[in-house]
């Protein structure tokens, strides 16, 4: 990559929001600051999942850190509209998806070729991610559309798990998560494909709403698959879906509580 790809405006992608209208230093102001949830949410999720990370899967914290990187990369891209910023934004989304899938996809969904081996599955996902990373440099203008297709396998896996889940709270979170994902995709498509219409309505900010809605959809999806993972592979830890700040308020922040006892603690 040459130095010109670091320059402002070097990306072939320019979203609907007008450029440099609020600040001379930030190209798309609303699209930049709307990434704030990616920066504020994950540190709190690291706290809520401290027991999960200690007793079940320490790599859960990698997912939260990658979400922060997604937010920083997206903010950099929309602030500069540089090709480097675009690629960082898109590739961090790819890698957070692949990391979540590799670490928490229930083994029963593995293709037969992997013989229920998570090590083989993770290796194949890593190879796929490396290849996809290389291909992303070929035609950067279509990367965003390619990434949207990742929602298809994620939604399918979620559907398969919700069909057999016995906890009604988990089921309801899955339904809400899917609804918000659809709303986010609608915002993305409208901003990308119907910019002229929204500009005439003086509301070219749907991509900013996409940032907010996709975070509100993405982190509960990670929570759900973390729940499916431990329920499938470590049922003795008795995972429970809970909400902060009040467990009886299902519009709060979801997390997975691990109900370990002294014997289980000593075994760790």
TrEMBL record:
It is a multi-pass membrane protein. The keyword Membrane applies. The keyword Signal does not apply. It is found in: Membrane. Ca(2+) binds at residues 14-15, 17, 19, 28. InterPro entries: ACER (IPR008901). GO terms for biological process: ceramide catabolic process. Zn(2+) binds at residues 78, 207, 211. Keywords: Calcium, Hydrolase, Lipid metabolism, Membrane, Metal-binding, Transmembrane, Transmembrane helix, Zinc. Its EC number is 3.5.1.-. Pfam families: Ceramidase. The chain crosses the membrane at residues 29-49, 61-79, 91-109, 209-230. Hydrolyzes the sphingolipid ceramide into sphingosine and free fatty acid. This is Alkaline ceramidase. The lineage of its organism: Eukaryota, Metazoa, Ecdysozoa, Arthropoda, Hexapoda.
């Amino acid at each position: 990559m040459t130095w010109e790809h670091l320059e402002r405006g070097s990306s072939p992608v320019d979203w609907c929001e007008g450029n440099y209208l609020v600040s001379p230093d930030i190209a798309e102001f609303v699209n930049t600051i709307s990434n704030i949830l990616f920066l504020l949410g994950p540190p709190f999720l690291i706290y809520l999942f401290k027991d999960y990370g200690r007793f079940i899967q320490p790599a859960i914290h990698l997912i939260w850190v990658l979400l922060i990187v997604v937010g920083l990369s997206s903010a950099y891209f929309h602030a500069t509209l540089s090709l480097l910023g675009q690629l960082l934004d898109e590739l961090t989304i790819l890698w957070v998806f692949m990391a979540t899938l590799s670490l928490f996809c229930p083994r029963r969904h593995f293709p037969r070729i992997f013989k229920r081996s998570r090590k083989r599955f993770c290796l194949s996902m890593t190879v796929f991610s490396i290849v996809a990373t290389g291909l992303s440099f070929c035609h950067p203008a279509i990367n965003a559309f390619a990434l949207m297709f990742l929602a298809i396998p994620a939604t399918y896996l979620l559907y398969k798990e919700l069909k057999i889940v016995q906890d009604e709270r988990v089921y309801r979170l899955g339904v809400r998560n899917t609804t918000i994902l659809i709303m986010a995709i609608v915002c993305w498509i409208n901003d990308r494909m119907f910019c002229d219409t929204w500009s005439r309505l003086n509301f070219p900010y749907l991509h900013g709403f996409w940032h907010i809605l996709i975070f509100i959809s993405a982190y509960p999806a990670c929570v759900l698959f973390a729940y499916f993972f431990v329920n499938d592979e470590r049922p003795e830890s008795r995972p429970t879906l809970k909400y902060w700040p009040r467990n009886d308020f299902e519009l709060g922040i979801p997390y997975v509580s691990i109900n370990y006892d002294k014997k289980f603690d000593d075994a760790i």
